[in-house]
Design a protein that fits this description.
249 residues, 21% strand, 37% helix, five-stranded mixed sheet, Udp-n-acetylmuramoylalanyl-d-glutamate--2,6- Diaminopimelate Ligase, Chain: A, domain 1
Length: 249
Amino acid sequence: MIDRDTLHHHLNTVLEAARFKDYGPNGLQVEGRVQVSKIVSGVTASKALIEAAIEAQADAILVHHGLFWRGHDGRVTGWMKQRLALLLGHNINLLAYHLPLDAHPTWGNNAQWGERLGLAADGRFGDQDLGFIGPAPAGLTLEGLTHLVASKLVKTPTVLPGDGRPLKRVAWCSGGAQGFFEGAIAAGADVFLTGEISEPQAHCARETGVAFMACGHHASERYGVQALGAAVAQEFGLAHEFIDIDNPA
C-alpha cells in the first residue's frame, strides 16, 4: 500500500512531468482515496476502462490519455459527467501522463514499442525530442518490418513504400505523430513508424522516397502505461492489472 500523494510525486519525478509542454494536465486528474493498494493501467480513461477498474477493485487508474485536454469547454455533461461520476462515486484516483509517457527512455511508449520490434534508439528528433531513431536490424526489409508490426501489434499497418530503398535507419513515434514525418526524414530515416496517417504523408513518401507506416494510435500506445504500472507496482508492493479496451483507431 502507498499513499496517493507519494505515488503521485513518484510518478511526476520519474517521468519528469514538469518539463513537458503538453495538451492537457499531467499527473493526478481526479482525486480518490488516500491509500492505494491496486492500480489498473490502460491507454485511455474511457467509461469502459473505468467500469473495468471498478470491477477489478482498483484504487487508482493510470492512463496515457486522461480526461482533460486543451480546447475542452469545461462543462461536466454527457460522457464527461458519466466518467467523472463513476470515478468520484467509487473514490478512485485517476493519474494521466501524456507526452512524459511517450518520451521516457525506459517506460515510455516509444521505448517499449521499439523494444518489441527489436529497435534500439541512438538519437531523438521532433518537438520535445519525442521521436526515436536508430539503426535497422541487419537484413530488415520493409516487407519484413510490415509483418513484424502486424504480428506484434495484432493490427495490419497502412504502408507507403517510398522508393524501395534499403532500410538502414528506422524512426518511430507512437500515437498521432504523423506530423513528425518530415523531421524523421531530416534525421536520416529510411522508414518512419507512427500510429496515424493524414493526407500529406502519402505525397511526402512518394516525393522523398522514405517509407511511412501507420500502425494504429491505440495499438502503438499500449505498452508504456502497462510497463510503468508494472514497475511502480513492483517497487511499492502494489497489485497491478493492465486492461486493454479495444480501439480500432
